[in-house]
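This part of the workshop introduces the protein records we will be handling. An example says more than a description, so a record of this kind follows:
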Amino acid sequence: MNKSRDNKPHIGIFGRRNTGKSSFINALVGQEIAIVSEQAGTTTDPVKKSIEIFGIGPAIVVDTAGIDDEGILGNKRIEKSLEVLKMVDVAVLMISENTFGAFEADLVNAFGNYDIPFIVVHNKFDIEPLQSKIKSDIENISDTIVLDFSSQTGYDLDPVIKALRNKIPESVFQKPPLLGDVIGKGDYVLLITPIDNEAPDGRMILPQVIAIRDVLDNDAINIVLKEDQVENFFKTSGITPKLAITDSQVFGKMKDIVPAHVPFTSFSIMLARFRGDFKAYLDGTPKIDELQDGDRVLILESCTHQVNCDDIGRFKLPNWIKEYTGKNIKFDIVAGLDKISRNTEDYKMVIQCGGCMVTRKQLRSRLKPAKDAQIAISNYGMAIAWVNGMFDRVTEPFRKVYA
């Protein structure tokens, strides 16, 4: 976990075709890792590269297609490039030949919409230096810095890297606690891990793996059991865990088996605080009680996988909510980072999975339109806990430290 995706700043490189975006990436690392060509439009899709930048450290750079691309395919490439805004922590807007127009102004507005700090790099200084008027015009419409640069000669690379480092939010380098502020050295942590049709063959699901590693990192002791072993464990072991974590879908079985004095939560709720918008989830989950006939709920899965009848987001959770509310509610499911086809305002509620396969930035950007529209937001684990009458109990371990 020490060098997870969440701890590496994601740097997006944006600009028109042939401004030298790929050359800039090569200059950053001092080697040719991005394809460079005189032909405009060489980069067709966003490409992520894990690199080491002297002065910044490990980072993930995302090279994007030109924002001035043309034609049907070009528009699709532009759309893909703009999707990158949901994942990056900081952006570089590449310009050249003193060209700054509507394409660039639109990008600056998009950076603002996603709260992305950015710098402007005027490339190809060796061919045409930056004009003072262009520099002042850009600085007048944006709170940023504009720097001259040459990918060919490496002119003024150090100031560019320094400016980029200063723009990266410090929160990117800070690893938020997963369990470290809830457990301590020598504590027992009980992990209840059902093995069902959704469990990958021969291995554990990622949230369970993340939890096991974090328990070890905090010098605590893992006890990993299937759900049908838990009752006997409490009857015979004599061990009182500091914390019990279960798969949310067995809340109903576990609520009477895990003693009331044992702090109890789920893997999804653990991730909700680690990567999601915990406060928004706490406030939004009770809105399940306000759902009415005909209301539409959006289920957001952050990963893509083969669907089966045991799928928690597509089948179990919608059915549990319908049964709990007694209402005829409509559900839409969007997987991965696919585009949401309906307007956000069409939904009464949005329920997000734990987000184990995406970064904190990606997950929060995914939820931003709903939050801006003041639509209730919940999380798989919290929603399941609510309909099982366990919401207060299973959020309590993290509400204490959150407050």
